[in-house]
Every structure is written in C-alpha cells, then in structure tokens.
Amino acid sequence: MDTESMTDSTGMDMGSGIQRELDPLENAHIQFEEAAARLKLDPAILQIIKQPRRATIVKLPVHMDDGSFRVFTGYRVQHSIVRGPAKGGIRYHPDVTLEEVTALAAWMTWKCAVVGIPFGGGKGGISCDPTTLSKTELERLTRRYVADLIDVFGPERDVPAPDVNTNEQTMAWIMDTYSMHARHTVTSVVTGKPLLIGGSAGRREATGRGVLFCVREAAKRIGLALDKATVVIQGFGNVGSVAADLLAKDGAKIIAVSDVGGGIHLPSGLDIPALQKHVAEHRTVAGFPGAEPIDGKKLLEIPCDVLIPAALENQITQANAGRINARIVAEGANGPTTTPADKILNKNGVLVVPDILANSGGVTVSYFEWVQDRQGLFWREDEVNSRLEQIMVDAFHDVANMADEHKVSFRVAAFMLAIKRVVDVIMLRGVYA
Predict the structure, then answer these.
(1) Which residues are catalytic?
(2) Could you tell me which CATH number the domain at 53-193 has?
(3) Model's pTM, two decimal places?
(4) Tell me: the pLDDT tens digits for 318-345?
C-alpha cells in the first residue's frame, strides 16, 4: 500500500503526518511551544532561545586505507551558550542530518537547565557508517572533524562528549587533536575520556545510574515497590545495560531486553550478570539461554511496571502508544516518544519521565569531569555517584513540583522549568545588541 498517498477522514495527508511525527526537530519545536505558552513569556525573548545560535556544516576529506579519498559531511550546532559553554555529544551514523543535530542540541539546552548545571546545549555528528570504517580511518575522520571545528570547540566555548557510535577512544582523539593545535594539553575540552587522560570515575555508568535514580523517585510517587516491580528495557547498550544491572540490584525483575541483534523475554526474570557475560561473548542479547526471542517493537508492548526505551528516537509513536502497558516510562534514549504518542500515554495514566530529565545523568557527570579537569583534582567514584544522586533527585522533585503546580505532564513541566531557568539568566544578563 502506498502510504504516501493515504489520507485520514479530515483529508490530511497521512504520509506527511507520519513524517512530521517522526521529525525530531518538529517534536522539539512542539515541546518548546507547548511549555513556553504556559509560561506567558515575552515573545521576543522566546525567539532568542528557540533558534540555535550557531550551526556549522563541514566537508571532511579523509584518506582511506586503500589510498583513495572520501568526503564526509560533519555538523556541529550550538543551540545556546547563555548559561555556559555548549555541551553535547558527537554521533557517527549514516542518518545524521542537520535537522536531527539541531533538535538534539536544543534538547541538551533544556537537559542542562533541568538539572541546573552551567552549560548550554550543543550537538554534533558525522554522516557515516562507522561499521564500514577501520580504526585508522575513524581516527583520521575524527581528527579532521576537530581540526575543521577548532575555532568552535574549547573548554569555555563548546565541550563535546560521546554519543551514538562514539566512545572513550573517540574522545581521546578529539582531546589530542585539540591539544596539538593549542600546543599544550587541554583535558577539559571534551568529556567521556579514559580515566588515564582526565576522565571521571563513574562516567560510563552515569546515564544508566541517573535513570535508576529517576525510576526510584517515580516509583515512590505512584506507590510502586521497586523490589516487586517488573522492568522492560529496549536497548542493552551502555545506558540500558547499566540501568538493568542497577535496577536488578534494587530488587526489580528485568523481564525483557533488546538490542540491535534482537530481543529476549523471560517472565520469571533475567539473570543480568549472566546476560552481561553472554553479551560480552556474543555481542548481542539474542540467543541467551532460557529466554524466548521477541521482536524489539513487540517488546515495548509487554505488560510491565517500568518501561525504559534506551535505544534510538521515535520508538513509541501514535501507532503503538495505545498498546504500551506500563505504569512508568523512563526515557533512557533521546526522543524515544513522539509528541502524539506522549499525549496518548498521558491520557492512559502512564507517568512518563522525559528524556531531558531521565537520561541527564550522563551530562551531569560530564559536568563533574569538566570541573575535575579544570581544577586538576579528581573525586572517588562514591563521591561522584553521591553528587549525581543529589542532583538527579533534586531535579526530579523540581519537575514534580512544577507538574503539580500547573497540572501538566512531567514532560511539559520539565520544559517549563528549563525554559524559565534559561530566560531568567537572559533577563539577568540582558541582551547585547
């Protein structure tokens, strides 16, 4: 069936409607507009913070291992630097676009504001398939990207971090390239680095640990005993696997997980340490002994107390939102729930802990790493985790209070809180024109 030519009863082009629903930039704008309207702010000020302050596109010629050259396209968007340097990850993926990066940069502004750390929002990416590139090709691509953006990055300007298909090694290359141009070692130009070169203890687990803290508080809010809760997790990468491990240690029963290789379901509860060992050996959760295979999309519809989408954007849409059977949805990924789906979940009484709150543990510990690099003094992991818990719990209750006061969803409340904090800083600083 040709979905592009389908229309609904109102005559609206359904293909166009679906495209709009899955457009991350469109979703970011809708979320912003809904929250901003409730704050009744000066429209001129809203225009200042709605649009990104800077968007850069670079063409990156890279010498390939076979002697040929390929030209890749890279992006870096700074949405805001009102509250501090731009902060946000760099992703390597074939589907990276300027629109996607712009939406993610805006979400980073609100994410940093929700947890109250002194950063603005940024995001970057390179349109490439890293699975087809050798390690040396990835290194050349990374170094060329940094060299072309050397006037954009900087500890006081724009601080990158890992994201989809980038990791500690990528961050080490970024730090080294920037340092070579600066003619001295600059560890604070990037976060998510290896410990040996200025990384922070607890950084790798930080996003998943932040999800745990939010789930704990959400469970208290609805009267759910976490040690009796069932949990489904879509995505068993860094965020999902850590959240699974920590929730299991809190007594929760992890009954289903998935990754790019497939999904598994075991109603009696998965043995997470054994599953982690299986993933280390086989690079996927698929085939885990004793569990039933399940499609990644169907996994979202398994009845459970807590659902954690920790994969990619647009996983819960208006097509499947009505079949979500969870009491809490804690968004470990960025933008996993579309705007129409969000309204369906809210109508059905699901407590959605939005991405700009639920997965902000990563950027919070990135902030800790930046602070530690700048002062040259590093904290123990228990100190990092304790500071993270305090910030996440405080942020959760700030959002909850906003939601109760204005009788809105957690997502709208989180955006209202974030926008207000950014606007308050603008009003204090004034607008230089």
Answers:
(1) 123
(2) 3.40.50.10860
(3) 0.91
(4) 999 999 999 999 999 988 999 999 999 9
